[in-house]
Amino acid sequence: MSRLIRARAPSNIALVKYMGKADALSNLPANPSVSLTLSGLATEVELRPAPGATGFHWVSEAPVSARAGAWRVPTLSDRGVARFLRHAERAAAAAPELLADCGLEFAPIEGAELRSANSFPAGAGIASSASSFAALTLTVIAAHARDPQAFRRTLESPERGSSLRARLASLSRQGSGSSCRSFDGPWVRWENAEARPLRSRLEPLTDFVLLVRESEKAVGSSEAHSRVLSSPLWKGRSERAASRASELALALESADFQAVCALAWAEFQDMHALFHSSAERFSYWEPESERLLEALQPWVESGHPRLGPVCVTMDAGANVHVLVPERLAPDWERALTKLAPGLPRLSDAQGLGARVIQEGEGE
Ligand code: PMV
């Protein structure tokens, strides 16, 4: 039986950041983090059985379903391909036990081709590791289910799906830490080995990404995770992040967007202060990032005079994320165009996490 599988996983944006590892080998985080799952900024991975072959093979072309749209094949270095394939092998090795624990039957795969594409342009300053490792994990595990349709039904079932998603998240984390937050949504809390959805009464948000820098960053996130340990501000960091994670959970539960905005601002400043003060100090901030932060800060503190509170955050990069209530997105879009005319920008809605989009035979 053919087990052609395609899965799609979105990226996520953390408001309380994962920065610093308690265990570098299995990507256990030094502190809890909380993120919003996105929807359109995503990666699609396709697994196609290759009769006669053994192991996984990377094919540098888009999955069939992604070819029609504006999806792009990532340009992976040899190291990038090796890391991707290593994780595919890790997922394949974990599949028998993971599936059995979730009441699903396992079927082995001899050899397979893997194709992948991102919905966002390469070099757009959007980290693709969260979405691509989540999509890869889900694809490889789904492909090992004897009945991929039963797998999909379990994944989508509100009751039985949650433990399967938690297992997939934990496996995915070993390939890329932040990918474990892309299996659920819209809000996810990750602590130690567990990433779980967080209850929220907050209205839906839109994430605008102001693309300050589109080229590859000088310090990758793995390097950042290790350099921050040498900062004098590292002391107390995990307590600060943990207490913000708890306060954020309360703010989401009580739909207090103003409090969400204040916490997110304090938190990304805290993470970037670690970068700026580590022994080998470094910074992702470009002059344009700083100009935008300065212009946005009064709106974060007191709200935009007409549009109210706004949530601002930055990851390990120069781009500025501006999260606003979806119902006000067109008005905010105009305000952001005024603030940064000519600056490229992406926008995305919140979402519910990784999904299988096709299983079985055929194109
Ligand atoms: O998953 P990694 O190792 O690429 O780390 C991501 C770290 C940040 O994006 C800076 C913060 C986060 O929690 O996503």
Beta-strand fraction estimate: 15-25%
Number of strands: 13
* Backbone shape: globular
Coarse structural class? alpha+beta
User: How many domains, in number, for the residues?
Assistant: 2
- Helix-strand topology string: EEEEEHEHHHEEEHHHHEEHEE
Helical content band:
25-40%
Query: What CATH architecture of the largest domain would you give?
Result: 2-Layer Sandwich
**Oligomer classification:** single chain
The major β-sheet equals:
7 strands, mixed
Question: What are the distinct ligands in this entry?
Answer: (3R)-3-hydroxy-3-methyl-5-(phosphonooxy)pentanoic acid
Number of helices, counting only DSSP H or I runs of 4 residues or more: 9
Mean pLDDT: 95
| The first-level CATH class name of the largest domain | Alpha Beta
How far from one another are the termini?
15 Å
Alpha carbon gyration radius: 20 Å
CATH topology of the largest domain, which one? Answer: Ribosomal Protein S5, domain 2
In short:
With 363 residues, the protein is of the alpha+beta class. Helices cover 37% and strands 23% of the residues. The chain starts with a strand and ends with a strand.
Write the layout of secondary structure elements.
Layout: E1 4-16, E2 21-23, E3 28-29, E4 33-49, E5 55-58, H1 78-101, E6 111-118, H2 129-143, H3 148-156, H4 160-173, E7 187-191, E8 194-197, E9 205-210, H5 221-227, H6 237-253, H7 257-277, H8 287-302, E10 311-313, E11 320-325, H9 329-339, E12 345-349, E13 355-360
Parallel strand pairs: 5-6
Antiparallel strand pairs: 1-4, 1-13, 2-3, 4-6, 4-7, 7-8, 9-11, 9-12, 10-11
Helix pairs in contact: 1-2, 1-4, 2-4, 3-4, 6-7
The structure holds (3R)-3-hydroxy-3-methyl-5-(phosphonooxy)pentanoic acid (PMV).
(3R)-3-hydroxy-3-methyl-5-(phosphonooxy)pentanoic acid binds near residues 17, 19, 178, 222 and 315.
